[in-house]
Design the sequence.
């Protein structure tokens, strides 16, 4: 029930969606009532939108999520490569590692988070097509495809009964903090391999404003907010 409710309410939990929807509602109410209290709340709402859209609040939040994990130049005795479903960059990283460690087996862990499911939009099906396009040896990959979220990912990973000291975990840098928290709770001690950092933490502030983009700022804030919400939810329920 929680899963389906969260999927229906997901758009409202997106902070920028919520702020803009609230702005429209407050604006209509102000036009109707002309009450000062609504004008004050509307002004606060506009202020929050400006902060999120025009300042790197999302980047700073993502920097907090990404700062604890780095990629080493070399790893020893890697026998298993776990890939959490998501961006194609994760698949590319898994192929790169697989070539570095030719004895390693790849495990792609994902499923289908959509409410309306079919055989074309589940993660393993999409991933298989991508691996095939890159001419990767499909005999080296196991597709684990029943999970709908990160918690279920690690429940399935635990059932694999791998030697975790020889197992590397690939996921996006911003997602690694939550992933490692869940892994620890499940008793899965894997080696983190974060990819595709998006905080821009190494970019000078003046340089970041050369590529200033309101939509990018909003997107980064949404990503940060969802991860923090996921971490909080996990801590409350675990």
Sequence:
């Amino acid at each position: 029930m929680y899963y389906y409710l969260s999927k229906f309410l997901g758009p409202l939990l997106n902070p920028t969606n919520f702020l803009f929807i609230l702005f429209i509602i407050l604006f209509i109410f102000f036009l109707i009532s002309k009450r000062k209290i609504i004008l004050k709340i509307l002004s606060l709402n506009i202020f929050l939108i400006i902060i999120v859209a025009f300042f790197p609040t999302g980047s700073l939040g993502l920097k907090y999520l990404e700062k604890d994990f780095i990629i080493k130049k070399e790893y020893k005795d890697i026998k298993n490569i776990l890939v959490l479903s998501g961006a194609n960059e994760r698949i590319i990283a898994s192929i790169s590692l697989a070539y570095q460690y030719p004895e390693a087996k790849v495990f792609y862990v994902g499923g289908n988070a959509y409410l309306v499911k079919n055989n074309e939009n589940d993660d393993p099906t999409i991933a298989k097509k991508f691996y095939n396009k890159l001419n990767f040896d499909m005999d080296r990959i196991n597709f684990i495809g029943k999970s709908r979220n990160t918690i279920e990912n690690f429940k399935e990973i635990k059932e694999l009964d791998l030697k975790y000291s020889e197992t590397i975990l690939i996921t996006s840098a911003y997602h690694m903090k939550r992933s490692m928290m869940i892994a620890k709770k499940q008793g899965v001690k894997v080696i983190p391999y974060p990819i595709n950092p998006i905080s821009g933490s190494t970019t000078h502030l003046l340089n970041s404003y050369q590529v200033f983009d309101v939509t990018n700022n909003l997107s980064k804030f949404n990503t940060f907010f969802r991860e923090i919400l996921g971490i909080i939810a996990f801590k409350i329920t675990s």
About this structure: The first helix runs from residue 2 to 13. The beta strands are 80-84, 105-111, 141-147, 167-172, 191-195. The mean pLDDT is 85. DSSP finds ten helices and five strands in the chain.
